[in-house]
Amino acid sequence: RVVEIQSQMSERAVELLGLPEDRPCLLLDVGCGSGLSGDYISDEGHYWIGMDISPAMLDVAVEREVEGDLLLADVGHGIPFRPGMFDGCISISAVQWLCNADKKSHSPPKRLYRFFSTLYTALARGSRAVLQLYPENSEQLELITAQAMRAGFTGGMVVDYPNSAKAKKFFLCLFVGTSGTLPKGLGTECADGGEIHQAKFTNERTRFRNAKGKSVKKSRDWILEKKERRRRQGKEVRADTKYTGRKRRPHF
């Protein structure tokens, strides 16, 4: 079942790349794992190079005798290929891991920017990168998108089946050098031919309001959420206690 889902997402990602039909292309597969996405790329007549941080997963890819070339690397350190080398890039369920600070030295915004800026350089002008990801929340999605735009990409999020809890999929569709038209997500048309607007994450700031519309900023929930957000960014944060968010008495 997992293999089937992976293959479907790979097929959709390659479709969103909008590759020319008359010639084979060289693609980069970020977080290639055991090479399941690469199998589909090969079946479509294209060539590929896969990058992954896991030696064990790449060993499986070697055992499976995948057709692509494999590179053991942490994409948070950048994409080590010459400028304009690739005709496109896909990534299935990998980019959100750059938001985690697995080491004390890791800064998620810096690692994301390093990834996107070097990816932008490695892609040919006019090409695309399609990154399927599972964002934990709106902040994570905003962080990823902001660093991609800062690196020079244009584009945005394509959401397939936005109203389905199980089938909903996020594809960050990025353009290099040219601003293309963002493809429509699957399952976004109503039965009457109308169109459902793409699902958007809510702006976090509007959530912290009570029934009368007043902001409950500085409340315990607000503080706990802010602390958790900073922890995910790898910052040092004091431990939560029963005193967190408690009002202090006024001084005499």
3D structure, described in words:
With 252 residues, the protein is of the alpha/beta class. It is 29% helix and 19% strand. Helix 1 (2-17) crosses helix 2. The radius of gyration is 21 Å and the shape is globular. It has two domains: 1-176, Rossmann fold (3-Layer(aba) Sandwich); 215-247, no CATH class. It has helices at 2-17, 36-43, 55-63, 108-122, 138-150, 220-232, and strands at 26-30, 47-52, 69-72, 86-92, 123-133, 154-160, 169-175. A seven-stranded mixed beta sheet has the order 3-2-1-4-5-7-6, sandwiched between helices. Residues 234-243 have a biased composition (Basic and acidic residues). It catalyses: a guanosine in 18S rRNA + S-adenosyl-L-methionine = an N(7)-methylguanosine in 18S rRNA + S-adenosyl-L-homocysteine.
SSE diagram, text form:
Layout: H1 2-17, E1 26-30, H2 36-43, E2 47-52, H3 55-63, E3 69-72, E4 86-92, H4 108-122, E5 123-133, H5 138-150, E6 154-160, E7 169-175, H6 220-232
Subcellular location: Cytoplasm; Nucleus
Family: Belongs to the class I-like SAM-binding methyltransferase superfamily. BUD23/WBSCR22 family.
InterPro entries: Bud23-like, Bud23_C, Methyltransf_11, SAM-dependent_MTases_sf
